Amino acid sequence: MKQLIDVAYNFDNSRWKTAAVSMLSMLCNRGDCHYFIRCVVTADMFKNADAKKQMTELVAKQDPESKIEFIKFDTKIATIPYDGNMAFGGGICYWKQDFWAVFPKLDRIIYLDDDTIVLRPLDELATTHLGKNYLLAFKTGQAFKTPVGTKKYGEIIQYNAGVIVMNLAGIRKSKIYETFAEYFKDKNLSFEQGLLAVAFRGRLAMYDDACTLYNYRTHADYATGGRDIAIIHYTGKKPWSFPVRKGGVWWKYAKMSPFYTEFRKNWIYNFLLYVAVMFLPTRKMRHAIRKKYSRV
Ligand SMILES: [Mn+2]
User: Are residues 85 and 146 in the same domain?
Assistant: First the structure.
């Protein structure tokens, strides 16, 4: 039997349906590949039997040879503190750097955000030689929050933290994770993206032969080398809340999911919310209200 490709997602009770859409796209475009999907989840999500059942059924229906597993994240193994808050200080986006401990038996894993759409089989990412690198990633992203970062650490590779291949064996063997807590204290670094960029500097490789697509600012990188887009990562605004570039691709897979009607209802609600707060005086206020009340 062909080996299953190990892929990991992180999510909580509010983002599992979007993670399911990402998985669906991956399975629809799997070619000859089969996947072992590892869902690293919050305690609440782990208790959500209905969600787990729906996701398991979705995978079984799409590809009976792929597998899905749910792992409750044990905060005791965390190298940096978690308070459950997505703001700097520890949310689920900080779990991925502890995957070397979450998956003690795996040598490598492909991590995907829930806001991704996979359009090509991921066998290349599963087999590319990692050598001494801890991370194989796609270009662009934001490693520093402030210009101080560049002064302090020099030119750091800007990569996308939403789609990465991690060399778990290398991270374990080198004990590089012992440096994470120290870097975490540096507020010049932008989330885990900055933390890993600095901790792994010199050992972070870029994957050139495929491409992710971004929908904000200048990060509109389309296919490279004449190849099609491998993965779309909807950084910034999400297709389930706003009209975004390449949003139609997300909706194509959302439509195949059991959550389509709900996504559509929420989209209308989010759009109305967006318009309703448009007249608030500051960007900060608008952002706060949208963040609080928008629905996934
Ligand atoms: Mn993302």
Answer: yes
